[in-house]
Structure formats: C-alpha cells, structure tokens
C-alpha cells in the first residue's frame, strides 16, 4: 500500500482550468461597419420620423408669413406636438430592437451586437437608458453638446474601439457571429 495511486488520501490528479472568459474570442466591430450602422439607423429613423412629423402638422409651420410671424411660444409648442409622435415611435422601434437583438436595427442588418465589456449580454435598461442616454442627451446642450458629440465620436480610434457612451454604459460592439455567449444567454433568459 505504499503506491501513490492506491493512497486514498492523495490529492486528485485532475487538472483544473479556469472557466472560459466569455469576452475571449469576440471580434470587435470595425469602425467602418459601426459608421455604416449609424447611417442606416439615421435613415431608418428619418423614414419613421418625417411622415409622422408632416402628418401631425409640421408642414404648416414652414409656410408662415414673414410679415406677420407667429408667436415664438406657440410655434415651439406646435413643433413639439408635431415632433413628439415620431420620436416616440422611433424610441419604441429601436427599444424593441435593442431588447430583441442586443443592438439597433442598423447593427442587426450588419451583423453587429452590443455586449457588456466582459462579453455577457447587455440588458435593455443598460442599452436604452445608459448607452442611449449617454449618446443622445448631452448632444442637446447648446455648444457643449456639439463638443461632446465630437469627442464621443473621435475616441473610437483607440485600441478598445469604444466611444464615450460605450465606456459610460460598460459596453462594446462586436460581430454577432463572435458573440455566441451573449446569444446563448439571450435564449436562456
């Protein structure tokens, strides 16, 4: 009984390995593909927004008489009423896409997906309110917003290929084919 193999108190000989990192093997989306996805999203959003805007009276605001301009307050109210339905529809459509596919419609068409930086699936709240708000809301601040949008867009040229809104929301954009763990997690949820 001096043989090590028969010693029941000997430690196991199995080799232990750390679990695979879900972020490993995910291919970051190319900068050009991300730009094309943003352009596609802009065109799709315009196709949704413009008809709604004109149906809600947006065209009437273009034809006012310059000799007797309308009250600015009433004009802003009418513009808001005409714009709101289009923005709500865009929010619902893109929100559904973020929840269902893990990306906007443009990203879905190009085979891209937004995931957490650890490779796991990013939830709707993080995508819509965290990432989306960080990308859109600062842009409406006069002067400072334009500078933020410029900086947000330019930081994608770092090695991580993350924009500021990606860093704020702890996300990254990857090719959908390389994010199997995120899609498997989505199918289990």
Topology:
Elements: H1 31-55, H2 72-101, H3 105-110, E1 112-116, H4 124-136, H5 144-154, H6 164-169, E2 171-175, H7 180-188
Antiparallel strand pairs: 1-2
Helix pairs in contact: 1-2
What brief labels describe this structure?
two-stranded antiparallel sheet; elongated; disordered C terminus; 7 helices; mainly alpha
Describe, in plain words, how this protein is organized in 3D:
The protein has 189 residues and is mainly alpha-helical. Helices cover 53% and strands 5% of the residues. It has a two-stranded antiparallel ribbon with strand order 1-2. Helix 1 (31-55) crosses helix 2. Residues 182-189 have low confidence and may be disordered.
Summary, kept brief:
The protein has helices spanning 31-55, 72-101, 105-110, 124-136, 144-154, 164-169, 180-188, and strands at 112-116, 171-175.
The coarse overall form would be elongated
Order of helices and strands: HHHEHHHEH
Radius of gyration: 25 Å
The percentage helix is 40-55%
């Amino acid at each position: 009984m001096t043989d090590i193999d028969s010693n029941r108190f000997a430690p196991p000989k199995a080799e232990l390995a750390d679990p695979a990192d879900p972020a490993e093997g995910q291919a970051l989306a190319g900068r050009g593909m991300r730009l094309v996805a943003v352009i596609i999203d802009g065109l799709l959003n315009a196709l949704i927004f413009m008809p709604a805007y004109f149906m809600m009276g947006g065209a009437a605001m273009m034809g006012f008489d310059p000799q007797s301009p309308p009250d600015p307050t009433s004009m802003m109210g009418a513009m808001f009423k005409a714009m709101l339905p289009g923005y709500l529809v865009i929010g619902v459509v893109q929100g559904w896409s973020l929840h269902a596919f893990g990306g906007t419609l443009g990203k879905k068409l190009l085979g891209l997906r937004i995931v957490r930086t650890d490779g796991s699936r990013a939830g709707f709240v993080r995508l819509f309110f965290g990432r989306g708000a960080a990308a859109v809301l600062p842009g409406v601040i006069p002067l400072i917003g334009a500078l933020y949008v410029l900086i947000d867009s330019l930081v994608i040229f770092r090695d991580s290929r993350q924009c500021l809104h990606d860093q704020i929301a702890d996300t990254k954009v990857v090719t959908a084919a390389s994010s199997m763990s995120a899609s498997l997690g989505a199918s289990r949820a």
